[in-house]
Amino acid sequence: LVMTVIMGGAAPVHSKSRRQKYDKMWKARKRECEKATCGHLIPDEAQNCVNMCISEDCFGDIYASEPLEDGEIDTDRNRAFTACIRKEAREVGRAQRNKYKS
Q1: Of 31, 47, 54, 73, which has the fewest beta carbons less than 10 angstroms from its beta carbon?
Q2: Percentages helix, strand, coil for the chain, rounded to the nearest 5?
Q3: Three-state SS for 40?
């Protein structure tokens, strides 16, 4: 048990801070989408609009074949969507770092 806590606590610190950085990026985009692009919709009915605004590619991969119904919460697809936008954010970050290195 002690070994698990020690090993489990040591490794994820670096990746957790990166994930938090990328989460801040897409959550800021989400707030922008909720206010500007999808602000004219009722919040319970705006989730598809907000998700599409955050990332059209991830929306297409996760929700396009079966969009959310108004007020629907689909935890599994939400997790997949979040993973997709985190991946996109990482790729954007890498591209920017590589751009500055060149």
Answers
A1: 73
A2: 80, 0, 20
A3: coil
pLDDT tens digits, one per residue of 39-72: 999 988 999 999 999 999 999 999 999 999 999 9
Tokens of residue 28, six digits: 């800021």
Q: CA of 11: how far to CAs of 55, 82, 90, 94, 99, in Å? A: 30, 22, 19, 21, 29
Specify the pTM. Answer: 0.76
From 46, 71, 74, 29, select the one nearest 63 (Cα to Cα): 74
* Tokens at 61, concatenated: 């991969």
64 closest CA partner among 88, 44, 84, 37: 84
Residue 88 CB partners (closer than 8 Å, separation 6+):
26, 55, 57, 58
User: What is the spatial distance between Cα 55 and Cα 74, in angstroms, rounded to a whole number?
Assistant: 17
**C-alpha torsion angle, residues 65, 45, 86, 37 (rounded to 10):** 110
